[in-house]
Specification:
Length: about 290
């Protein structure tokens, strides 16, 4: 078998969740050629996992489209402050909420902060997630299984419950799923299971909230260059990450963020219960 081409410098971070500052190259998150047109003017958006990666890119583009922003994050203070700086550079305020959204009280606090500081909530982006690769299901402990489900899935339930009293007609919920929900991943069994559940949650919630005029959709990214990658894979795996998709490269967060803009704006007014697939060309028929 031919040796896989090196796509990124080999690198690994020992702490989870990963930090963005040590990554080489730095992820592309601000999409310089993207010009806002007021698609989200006057809206207020809460984005979980907004400190870096896809969440940061979504925060920047939402701000560029006129939305006031709130982000939640676990403990990556420096990354969160950089997101705040980038959002401010777009002329919008950015509320920053620290804490583990796997705990329901933290989710309630995050929503309460948004209402306290901005008086409303129009868009909820359930983006935060974690993964812990294991060679075998036998290596997945009960603690890891619960942790992954709490962060990736339980938090989405908790946040929707907390946000729903404040979401009026025309509000939008956008969930982050994954290509692994459709094609699986032998070393990410628990992570893939959460992402499959998110697809089902998105479809069911869309039906449940339709009469209230609230749309619910999801985005299922493929291999994207975020801190999650060097913090969870070996240096050798990181070096070739993204090479197994038709485009033969890793995707950037700001190549995913426009899908979130579309689903939060009136451009997608006749879409609910659907999933978009920025994944480098992998056909999943889902």
């Amino acid at each position: 078998m031919a040796e896989q081409e090196s796509l990124q410098p080999p690198q690994h971070q020992d702490t989870r969740p990963g930090r963005q500052e040590p990554m080489v190259p730095q992820p592309s998150e601000t999409r310089p050629g993207y010009h806002g047109s007021g698609k989200l003017r006057g809206k207020v958006a809460l984005i979980t996992g907004g400190d870096s990666g896809i969440g940061r890119a979504v925060a920047v583009l939402y701000a560029r489209e006129g939305a006031k922003i709130g982000i939640s994050y676990l403990n990556e203070d420096k990354d969160a402050e950089e997101t705040r700086r980038l959002v401010a550079a777009e002329g919008q305020p950015c509320t920053v909420v620290r804490g583990d959204i796997g705990q329901e009280d933290i989710c309630r606090q995050a929503v309460a902060r948004m209402i306290e500081e901005h008086g409303r909530l129009d868009i909820l982006v359930n983006n935060a997630a974690e993964q812990h690769p294991q060679e075998s299901i036998e290596d997945i402990t009960a603690e890891q299984l619960e942790r992954t489900f709490r962060t990736n899935l339980f938090a989405q339930f908790f946040l929707v419950k907390a946000a729903l009293p404040h979401l009026g007609e025309g509000a939008c919920i956008v969930n982050t799923a994954s290509v692994t929900a459709y094609k699986g991943s032998p070393k990410l069994l628990d992570y893939s299971a959460t992402k499959g559940a998110i697809v089902a949650f998105t479809r069911s919630l869309a039906m449940a909230l339709s009469e209230r005029g609230i749309r619910v959709n999801a985005v299922a990214p493929g291999p994207i260059w975020t801190p999650l990658i060097p913090s969870t894979f070996t240096a050798e795996e990181v070096e070739t990450f993204g090479g197994n998709v038709p485009m033969k490269r890793v995707g950037q967060p700001d190549e995913v963020a426009p899908a979130f803009v579309f689903l939060a704006s009136e451009d997608s007014s006749y879409m609910s219960g659907q999933v978009l697939h920025p994944n480098g060309g992998t056909v999943v028929n889902g």
